[in-house]
Amino acid sequence: MNIAYFKDMDSLYVEISPESPSHSWEAHAGIVLNLSEDGRVVGIEIEKASQATNLDILKIGGFPGQVEVIDTNTSGTTH
Q1: β-strand partners of 12
Q2: Contact at 8 Å (CB) between 32 and 47?
Q3: pLDDT at 79 (0 to 100)
Q4: Nearest Cα residue to 10 out of 48, 42, 44
């Protein structure tokens, strides 16, 4: 499972499975479910994420595997 925030698009994506979705369904305005061929949810996209959620309190933890934080900010600051 991967969680990524794309600042330039203001989009938060939760990848549940690494497979490519066969189709998408907008469950609610700005909430898109990506589905596999057999209807399983493989990803969730939240559009305009900074308006829909409070990204300042995004906490990642409690996963059974390793948590890797990737900061592509070139200014050297972290969030």
Answers
A1: 5, 46
A2: yes
A3: 41
A4: 48
Which residue positions in the chain have pLDDT lower than 50? 74-79
pLDDT for the residue numbered 75: 47
Q: Residue 7 contacts by C-beta under 8 Å, 6 or more apart in sequence? A: none
The tokens for 21 are: 């979705």
CA 79 vs. chain centroid, Å, equals 16
Strands (E), the chain: 2-6, 11-15, 23-28, 31-35, 41-47
pTM: 0.71
> How far is C-alpha 42 from the geometric centre of its chain's CA atoms?
11
Tokens of 32: 């898109």
The tokens 């595997």 sit on which residue?
65
What DSSP element (H or E) covers 29?
none
What span, in angstroms and rounded, lies between the C-alpha atoms of 73 and 60? 18
